[in-house]
Design a protein that fits this description.
Distance between the termini: 49 Å
Number of domains: 1
Number of strands: 7
CATH class: Alpha Beta
Mean pLDDT: 97
Radius of gyration: 18 Å
Bound molecules: S-adenosylmethionine
Strand order of the largest sheet: 3-2-1-4-5-7-6
CATH architecture: 3-Layer(aba) Sandwich
Number of helices: 9
């Protein structure tokens, strides 16, 4: 196994079985949905980079239409399938293992494209550009994106996040990029700060603690746990200076 393969195996050892793969909450998903203008009677909806799919389940329950839940990592999709079964939503969750940069969807085939905590993988502007043609005229896009909330973030937060996500910018920057990619901005709101801990970092931290012993004999896992600890420390110290913002956008023309 290469070092790279060992790293990713360790990463997914840490990340397996968590309720979410990024900060978020059912309440925030519902809030974003409620802020949208009326959807067509049977909206065609995709959830890009769905991970274990908490937001896919909320979308299915609230909208009562099939949600195409798309991710590359099969164990997350299996987790979503099991959760859908538990909630009696199997008939509304369509799982697809695919690359969200090339999801195999026809142009204009979506009324609503959802992406919580996943567009950063493509990059905000690139992701918006790639996904725009998938939306029909007036189609809607909701994405949560890591955003600077303070005009002058502490150096420790800046260094950590610039290394992790060099293109990260602030609210005004993200809005301008969205408009530049051919979207009208319908609204935006920040994810509540406690959703970081309650729904993501807390469960992740618990799992990391359970793996500490195993990491003593596994350098890749030790590295993943150290990086994870650094993310938690940066959030604890400087979490007020950055956060996820939900952006509600409509395809122009
Ligand atoms: C930060 S997680 C967010 C997951 C989920 N939306 C949530 O909030 O729990 C990003 C997700 O994108 C998936 N992913 C990464 N690259 C991808 C790609 N090129 N195409 C599809 N999914 C991808 C990962 O497997 C992961 O589930």
């Amino acid at each position: 196994m290469t070092d790279q393969e060992a790293y990713w195996e360790a990463f997914f050892t840490l990340h397996q079985g968590l309720p979410r793969e990024g900060p978020g909450s059912d309440a925030a998903t519902r809030r974003a949905l409620k802020l949208l203008p009326a959807l067509p009677p049977r909206p065609r909806v995709a959830d890009m980079g769905c991970g274990p799919g908490r937001q896919s389940l909320v979308l299915a329950a609230e909208l009562g239409v099939p949600i195409l839940a798309l991710d590359l990592h099969q164990p997350f999709l299996d987790q979503l399938r099991a959760a859908a079964q538990e909630r009696g939503l199997t008939h509304l969750i369509q799982i697809r293992r695919a690359d969200m940069a090339d999801p195999g969807l026809a142009p204009g085939s979506l009324d609503l494209l959802w992406a919580e905590g996943s567009i950063f993988i493509l990059g905000w502007a690139r992701g918006l550009g790639l996904w725009r043609p998938l939306l029909g005229p007036g189609g809607l896009l909701v994405a949560s994106e890591l955003t600077w909330l303070s005009p002058d973030p502490p150096a420790e937060a800046r260094e950590f996040l610039q290394a992790a996500y060099p293109a990260m910018t602030d609210l005004a920057g993200n809005l301008a990029l969205a408009q530049g990619q051919g979207y009208q901005v319908l609204g935006h709101f920040p994810l509540e700060n406690r959703a970081w801990w309650d729904e993501y970092l807390g469960p992740l931290n618990e799992r990391a603690q359970g793996l500490a012993g195993q990491a003593q004999a596994d350098p890749a896992l030790a590295q993943v746990l150290a990086e994870n600890q650094q993310e938690i420390t940066v959030w604890r110290r400087h979490g007020a200076s950055f956060g996820y913002v939900f952006y509600l956008l409509r395809r122009l023309t």
